[in-house]
Amino acid sequence: MPKRSLFARLTGWPLIKVPYRAHWRVMMLAHPLILSLIEDNQDGETRRASLAEWQRAERPVIALHRGTNSRLRIDGPRQIVGSESFAMGALIESPGVTAHLDPVETLHLEQRVSEAIEREILRWIDERGLQQLRAVDPHIDREVADLEALRRMREWMDGSRWTKVPDYVR
Question: Which of 57, 71, 80, 131 is the 20 to 30 A CA-CA neighbour of 92?
Answer without folding.
Answer: 80
